Amino acid sequence: MATSAHGRGDAGGTTTLVVSGKSPEDQQLLASAAFSLSLGERDSVEEIAVSLDAGAGAGAAFDAGAYMAALRVSRFGRWMLWSPRLTSTHDLVTRNFAKLPVGVVCVADVQFNGRGRSKNVWESPAGCLMFSFTSQMEDARKLPLMQYVACLAMTEAIKELCCAKGLPELEVKIKWPNDLYLKGLKVGGILCTSFYQPKVYNICTGIGLNVDNEKPTTCLNAALKELKANSPTLKREDILASFFNKFEVLFEIFSNEGFQALEEQYYNSWLHSGQKVVVQDGHEAQRSDSVVTIQGLTPAGYLYAIGEDGKSYELHPDGNRYPWLRLPHESNSTHLLRPSSSSSLLFPHRSRSAGGSTTRQDQPRAPMAEDDSVVSAQWLHEHLGQPDVKVLDASWYMPVENRDPWQEYQVAHIPAALFFDIDGIIDRTTDLPHMLPSGEAFAAAVSALDIKNHDKVVVYDGKGFFSAPRVWWMFRVYGHNKVWVLDGGLPQWRTSGFDLESGTPGDAILKTKAANSVVEMIYNGQLASATTFQTEFQPQLFWTLQKVKHNIAAKTHQVVDARSKGRFDGVAPEPREGVRSGHILGTKCVPFPEMFDDAPMLLPADEIRKKFEQAGLKL
What is any one of the record's Gene Ontology cellular component terms (predicted)? Predict the structure, then answer.
């Protein structure tokens, strides 16, 4: 049987998803969810065809029956979506996480818009094992280590599979933090992303492994043939089943005992023990080099090294590129970027996927111009810690979402970020929510957060692009143009693999409470302490209700409604109780989610312009 559901995928055609389960009940559970899946606005397919027929694919179709027969698990991989050609397995499971059973896996023969670190796009042909699966975890401190568990599971799975089938052993090794190497060449890679919902983190893990393509580097079966000319080959179905059989065991240990219980196995499978590297610290003109020896991992998952002078080093990835982490056979020492606040080194290069095709790498925005509105995660990572760079977590959620932004801030936030309370830094003279505070109140609150007029302010939120622009606007209204929104927010920061802090230092708590308290004091007629931030009101950025009413007849300005089309048309209820739906006469509807890609990150200016023009706005 086959049916279809609305969605978008490969250029104007149909994306096929074949549903399989370890048991008939598993298959039926996944099938009921699969009919409502979506692929994303950026893709241009007319429909998704969902099939329960494992023979729906042609040619080199993935043998779901063989995979399920080899699977010995209770949690992971029991539900499978397979597609002969898909934009991105990772995007599909991420976008539809809430609709799918936890532990589901999505497999594609060909993937033409795959996910990589820092918005890299992978184009992978047939011959690779490409899959993404879901999991959940409550402890935020373990999230950075999840990719290491997945790496270890794959190396162990390949080793055990070769042994079970009587094949020559393939020594697949881990190149920190998330690559798989064979004979000194990359053969696979792993990407973990996560997002928070109340009390739990949803994790999506994507893996690409080159099984059959000998170019441009090597593949598993080519290596087997080199070891033994008439050797049988490994099949994708067997590798995937072996992976989940091993991963489920390791994940259980990791969840209950922590990564320490897996360290010995991990070190036996990685490339870096005793490796000497050169730490390059500082700007080009003032760079200092130190030779260090890698000892292992820190509890947070970074490289721990000892210098020749006995000094300890914690070495971080740069979030995207690792040409500096060369293998031992390439050089006697390795050039390693230690991204401290003073580091600003970039190593542009072209990467290739496990399947051998070229990846498209988007260049991050590097704005320091005040007329730009966003800054990239890469830019913030390179400048984090500089005394004039201040970071604010401005997360806020609709009441119906039942999420506590202050609690989530304490669980995980960008290092040194302070919490900006949108519910607290407001006009206290009205019952209307989130009205702009007076200039005096705003200046006092911002001063309490230790922000001065010469500071560069970067604002982010937990959804990616939701409440942070509101705080950006507040700064602009009061004349501070050195303010930017973090493009993609906390989700993009996580995706880039950058550090997170958990817990809340006493100083951060005091500053957040002080910012709220000083606003209340001012509206109660009390004098606040001396301010370090001065405001200059920009009336052109602020409209009152009276101005909006006047414009209905005058029509001197175009008015945009950024809510959903349903709320604009009055057919969908407002999330706030007691508020009527519908719209102001003469306004144009441009829903704000249409301004972003799936990350969500801001679309290029020309694409945004087209959306406004399509809505009938004159620019």
Answer: cytoplasm
Angle at the Cα of 34 from the Cα atoms of 31 and 38, rounded to 5 degrees: 175
Question: Is residue 496 classed exposed, middle or buried when 0-12, 13-18 and 19+ CB atoms within 10 A define those classes?
Answer: buried
Phi and psi at 81, nearest 5°, equal -110, 125
Higher pLDDT among residues 36 and 505, named by residue: 36
pLDDT > 80? residue 409: yes
Region for residue 313 given its phi and psi (left: phi exceeds 0; alpha: psi -120 to 50; beta: otherwise) = beta
Strand ranges, E, within 104-220: 105-115, 121-124, 128-137, 172-175, 179-182, 185-197, 200-210
The residue type at 368: M
15-269: in CATH 3.10.290.10: no
Q: What is the distance between the alpha carbons of residues 239 and 540, in angstroms, rounded to a whole number?
A: 61
Report whether 201 contacts 143 (CB < 8 A).
Answer: yes
Give domain limits for the chain: 15-269, 275-315, 374-524, 545-615
CA distance 128 to 123: 11
Give 336 or 146, the one with higher predicted confidence.
146
Q: What percent of the chain has pLDDT over 90?
A: 53
pLDDT the model gives residue 589: 93
- 581 phi, psi to nearest 5 deg: -90, 180
How many CB atoms are closer than 10 A to CB 550? 13
Distance between CA atoms of residues 83 and 532, nearest Å: 58
**DSSP conformation letters of 270-311:** BS-TT-EEEEEES-GGG-EEEEEEEEEE-TTS-EEEEETTS-
In angstroms, the CA 63 to CA 238 distance is 10
In the prediction, which pLDDT does 60 show? Answer: 52
pLDDT at residue 1 greater than cutoff 80: no
User: Rounded CA gap, 573 and 231, in Å?
Assistant: 64
Q: Hey, do 374-524 and 545-615 end up sharing a CATH topology, with the first three levels equal?
A: yes
Say which amino acid occupies 289: D
Whether 182 contacts 218, CB under 8 Å: yes
Looking only at the bridges linking them, the beta strands covering 79-86 and 105-115 are parallel
Phi and psi, residue 153, nearest 5°: -60, -40
- How far, rounded to the nearest angstrom, does the alpha carbon of residue 272 sit from its chain's CA centroid? 26
pLDDT, one tens digit per residue, over 591-616 is 988 988 877 888 998 999 999 999 99
Give dist(CA 495, CA 603) in Å, integer: 18
CATH classification for the domain delimited by 545-615, as one of 3.40.250.10, 3.40.50.300, 1.20.1050.40, 1.10.3660.10: 3.40.250.10
Q: How confident is the model at residue 357 (pLDDT cuts 50, 70, 90)?
A: very low
Q: Residue 528: what pLDDT?
A: 67
**Mean of all residue pLDDT scores within the chain:** 82
pLDDT at 460 over 70: yes
Measured in degrees and rounded to the nearest 5, phi and psi for residue 149 equal -65, -40
**369 has a pLDDT exceeding 60:** no
Write the DSSP symbol of residue 337.
Answer: E
The three-state secondary structure class of 381 is helix
Q: Within a 10 A sphere around the Cβ of 559, how many other Cβ atoms?
A: 16
Rg over alpha carbons for the chain, rounded to the nearest Å, is 26
Note if the bond before 216 is cis, omega within 30 degrees: yes
How confident is the model at residue 561, as a pLDDT?
A: 93
Of 590 and 372, which is predicted with more confidence? Answer: 590
